[in-house]
Please model this.
Amino acid sequence: MRYLRLKGVDMATMIIVAAVSGCVLLLGTTITLVVLNWSEKTITPVLSIFLIGTSTTLATVLVMLKESTVESAFTTSVVFDTAQGAPAMVTPNPNSPKISSRLSDLVLLGRPAINRDGKTVITIQKPTSLDETFTFCGELLQYQLLLTIEKLQRGGWKVRQTLGASTATVSKPMKLSKIQDFPGNAFLHVITSNRFSDSDMERFHWEQGHFPLPRNTIVSLIHLAPDRGPEKFVVRLKKPLFFQIDFVVEPLAGTGMGVLPAGVTLPPELAARCQTYQFQVTMRATFERLTAGNSQTQEYKEWANWLSSRVQDSLAD
Model:
């Protein structure tokens, strides 16, 4: 079997070498004849052949190249304590560790604080209306989404102990052939547009961390005001000439008091003052036409699908 495989490789190599040699010989012969017979009469046919050949090649390549998109969507939520004006303190539930863990993460993220003259100061204002609460929750989910992508790209492990039960998870990033390990402080100017980054803890996290991404990828946080359609919060990953991947957070509905997501347990007195705000997260990845035939593009498509799947596993209800 090994002999047959080697023989197949040799035959393929021989065919490629023969084809290249034939092209080189043909091109060399043509150039030699043109040079030997150069005159005003040869200019027109030579230029015509060159232009026609170039145009044919360009047209053939353009027909082959097509822009493509990949899309997916899931739902997530925020349990909001109307008395505190912040995410509710969720009681850990060993029967629903995923959603209770995610909502617990929102408790700290939703109360960004700095140390000022030895005192802990919350840096954001409580929402005072329904619209402000939807905006608060949507922006909070945008920041949680960015942190989730960063953690997925870094990989690592996590151990939790909840009501006597211990759980551990390991995350490994997808391997890419061309990766750039950005220092975390390179994103400080990006996160300032989100109010929940205004925290000593979050600043320390970004200053000491790192964020591996495809080479030359640009990260941005975008807020689309509800002038035309629903308000949207976007986490955008863009590699010029290759792809643009948008994770879009937009509101769906809010519940009445005491209505909680399945698997969430709160003391009755706390549940009575809590509402659940539900959101849709849509991933839309667009791959540029100009590089559709590049070998990297298929790899980026697989990465976009992998990233979308892992984000959904982490944040979906």
About this structure: Residues 2-64 form one domain.
